[in-house]
Amino acid sequence: MKRPRIDVEANHKLISRRAAILGGVQLAFVGALGARMQFLQVDQADQFRLLAEENRINIRIIPPARGEIFDRNGVALARNVPSYRIVIVREDAGDVEDVIARLGKIVPLDGDEVERALAEMKRSAPFLPITFADEVTWDDLSRVSVNAPALPGVTPEVGLSRVYPFGSDYAHVLGYVGPVSDYDLDKLEDPDQLLRIPRFQIGKVGVEAKAEAPLRGKGGAKRVEVNATGRVMRELDRREGTAGSDLQLTVDSKLQSYVQARLNGESASAVVMDVTNGDLLSIASAPTFDPNLFVRGISTTDYSALTNNKYRPLASKSVQGTYPPGSTFKMITAMAALEEGLIGPDETVYCPGHLEVAGRRFHCWKRAGHGWVDLQNSLKQSCDVYYYDLALKVGIEKITAMANRFGLGERHDVPMSAVAQGLTPTKAWKASTHGQDWVIGDTVNASIGQGFMLASPLQLAVMAARLASGNTVTPRLIKSIDGIEQPSGGGVSMGMNENNLRKMRRAMFEVVNDRRGTAYGSRIIDDAMRMAGKTGTSQVRNITAAERRAGVIRNEDLPWERRDHALFVNFAPYDNPKYAVAVVVEHGGGGSKAAAPIARDVTLQALSGGDPSLDAYPTKDRDRIKEQQRVLRGIEPLANVSGKDQA
User: Fold this and answer.
1) What values do phi and psi take at 158, rounded to 5?
2) Of 161, 253, 282, 327, which one is the catalytic site residue?
3) Looking at the predicted structure, is the pLDDT value of residue 641 above 60?
4) Among this protein's residues, is 382 annotated catalytic?
5) For 314, left (φ over 0), alpha (ψ -120 to 50), or beta?
6) Half-sphere exposure of 481 toward its Cβ, with a 13 Å CA cutoff?
7) Is 493 helix (H, G, I), strand (E, B) or coil?
8) In this predicted structure, what is the pLDDT of residue 129?
9) If DSSP states are collapsed to H, E and C, what string results for 194-211?
10) Are 109 and 100 in contact (CB under 8 A)?
């Protein structure tokens, strides 16, 4: 059998073709590999060198020291104190749960805090330090440092924490700081990188929030070298940030502490204002709360106790609270009439105890009436009918315009939270707000500070200061920033007829110093400190006709929330006004009974710079005042370093 003939030449061509293809593929592979190597090693060399460096070098933000806050005399109101804490960086720790387990064997860890920190770690960048234990002791910090090799990613730190040495005395003024929340970040378009640091503290309310920018400062940065396990080996360089600016407030810590103690037991507020420059020496609300509870996050129990309290301890009543000003508004109605030339000081109005207007009877507080009264006597005895009659002559537009000139219906620019504008109504306002026409009865009610009229204690203090000085005094709470004095609130002349202002001041003097004055029981008998003022009772409910026929129910017989508010405004000394004071006692009843005594005591404290001589009080009051001073000094909190020990 014949063997097939092999075509050697054809096979040779086939092998050559396959070899060429294989060689081409190999050449292409080598070429691609070479190109890739060139791309990685040459073209991208700088980038990968940088990445390698960043794996070895970490850059960390250094939080700045927050600016501190002081009173007008340099007493610290908000301070920074050292605080030891333990933080973990997730990307350096590796097995976080294992590291936490080891850490828990060295220092005590709170379970709730650990859960919070783990949740915070999951939503934060892996390079950010997360606090797992705060306010640890020096011994705990030392144990963590000694065991550092076994705790990758764990770093003991010494930071600063905010404390409020006077505790509750300045809660409504200073507010408090707290950890940055998602809500805080959502309000900002381009948040500072500092705010990305977990549990970084910012101002939440009060001066702490309103002056957040100067208080916060600017962060620094440090470069640290880490080993393969993420342990910090050394610090390469550091760029310190800029500490926040220190603020000096206009308040006087001694006076503020006294006022808070004097308001103790009441749901009330008080404002003391310098009539020459607008400085707020005291701005207090009661009841109050300890802002130190909020610094690291208040407990649910403590917060519920505050929010469920019917006396509203979280509210800054001095600036947020608005009340019908009652008879303290009568000076405004009178000034509107005087400036328009519609009345003279000697003109009289007969008060039979009521006035018929448009078929409705408007009553005076004194059912039997005051008889014939002129301007001075109408204010001294607080006759309502006199001002009803003025209202018919002046009209609401001129009354409201005068109220605005004296600072009512204006949101004053003080760095506190939710500063109220109050309300000085007009015909247009009622039409747009209520869809109703203005009626003459609305004007009559407004003339004695009732109806739609609303004012805050701060606005009432401004009103009293402008009556005393004749200038456009505006309130000032920040005295200086980093030693730079802030603009004065002294203002300029209001352009009022000085004779008219003198008549009002004299009538207010009679309110307090004449035996028939409504505030005679709260007078100051030291001639150098005598005050002028005006009582007010703000009605919070309508008295029915049946109640009037039966004899109006006594205020003290009603449930607390249905009782009238008590108000008092004053300035002193009468001959050379220095301070204006406004006091509002919620549901306190009559202004002469509840508010005037507080205002008198506060005024004397301001004028004396401390406890005044008992000689300034009427003889019958001295024993009671002596005991009161002893008790109040006993409950005034003393400034302390930690902010925890409240007297």
Assistant:
1) -115, 115
2) 327
3) no
4) no
5) alpha
6) 16
7) strand
8) 77
9) HHHCCCCEEEEEHHHHHC
10) yes
